[in-house]
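User: I'm putting together notes for a lab meeting next week and I want to include a structural view of one of the chains we've been expressing. I don't have a solved structure, so I'd like a prediction I can at least talk through. The sequence is below, exactly as it appears in our construct file.
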Amino acid sequence: MSTETTHAPGADAPDRSQAPAGERLADWADGRLGIYSLAKSNMRKIFPDHPSFMLGEICMYSFLIIILTGVYLTLFFHPSMNEVEYHGVYGPMQGQLMSEAFSSTLKISFEVRGGLLIRQIHHWAALIFLAGMFVHMMRVFFTGAFRKPREINWLFGFLLFALGMFTGFTGYSLPDDLLSGTGVRFTQGAILSVPIVGTYISMFLFGGEFPGGDFVARFYSIHILLLPGIMLGLMVGHLILVFYHKHTQYAGPGRTEKNVVGMPLLPVYMAKAGGFFFLVFGVIAAIAGIATINPIWAIGPYRPDQVSTGAQPDWYMGFAEGLIRVMPGWEINLWGHTLVLGVFIPLVVFGLVLGAMAVYPFIESWVTGDKREHHILDRPRNAPVRTGLGVAWVTMYMITLVGGGNDLWATHFHLSLNAISWFVRIGFFVGPVIAFIVTKRICLGLQRRDKEKVLHGRESGVIKRLPHGEFIEVHEPLSAEQRYTLTAHEQVAPFEIGATTDENGVRRKVSGAEKLRSKLSKGYYGDGTQIPKPTEEEYKEITSGHGHH
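Assistant: Thanks for the context. Below is the predicted structure for the 549-residue chain, given as structure tokens.
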């Protein structure tokens, strides 16, 4: 017969009854939650120090500001489409019929203390959150920070951006003003263009024929509960993976794939992050206090028989609207049903572009066959094809953004609306190609410049005349640290199919996927995609005095 002895936590701990109250409270919490051990293992986590890494923090702080201001706004907003007669303090609207949603938004703007400021902070923070996400994802893309083991984190970031777009759309639709109502009507028409299921989705979303009497309440639930809840979970998961994988860093002396050079989370990084939060909050509050956004009192309540002039979505939805605006109005009839290709095709293209963004890390990993972990970032110039693809995508986005505001471009710059539409139609196909070619050439030029700097040193601007009359520019040699940074990148060899017959002359079958991978790999890393790095022999020959310097 055996017995098991249990040990009570803290049984042998020293007597802390005379310790300060704060320490005793900390001991009590640690004995039940293990906070001290958790903090000890994580609060000294090292984070590299580079300005571009703060882009993600701008997104996180903007999201927190959105949550805080959104909670305040929910106290006063009435998500109802019941019709009421306005008798508030805003004179021009006196006696007008409007929904309770519009009326309560007017009350927030003119009668609730600080309501208009909070409303504008909420809207501006949403715009800055999505702009920060856009730039942050571009930084991750151009530097290759999405590679193994961070593919899942890239998907989390992409979902945050995509859900942020739809959260913003449902949010600016809530006041039920003429501008947002026009956007909702536009969206409903796009949904109806989806074959077979479009009508059912529209009826489910709007509770019947548009505009119905329920869509504000439904959008409200989606806006404050469903989408933010998912986004909050994704953001927590994103941060956990950042901690788990450790942060990426730029190449430099002492930095390897197995270490991180930087500052500890506590106290250095936390102090900087706390100050940066208040800086972001202050900038957003200053913008909100200076620049009016979404002045619904100047637009009026939504009426299905009216369309507001110059109606534009927020910038992040301009890509989708631009595709639909410039698409020719094609329609076909099949078995008695009309298929509106002029709307449906842009929706498919929009989905394909977003889908390509989401799966790109897996595509590049397949093309390169690289299964290693990467914690050192690329300089964009050293991956010219990837950088060219990113710039091409941004170019396509910006061109379609012009299409999304083609009427304003026409009126403000006295241009033909048809000319702008044709510019966007042609530019959608030609612009990204030109952007890719130009970006790739710029990257190769920068690679050549780096090679020259490593071999010959930095141009000092000092001109010297030699005894025989020749004028030369004096070059200052780079430090060992600078030379290491400029030559630390890898140059990947393209994937080769190899011999298609063995030593016995038996022909090996090559799959189509293998052929495609070989062609894509040569496009990424073949001839004309990278400038050979300077070798040690070249450097020694030039620095020994035998080469021209």
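A couple of points you could mention at the meeting. The CA atoms of residues 45 and 412 lie 52 Å apart. Confidence is low (pLDDT under 50) at residues 1-10.

User: Perfect, that's what I needed.
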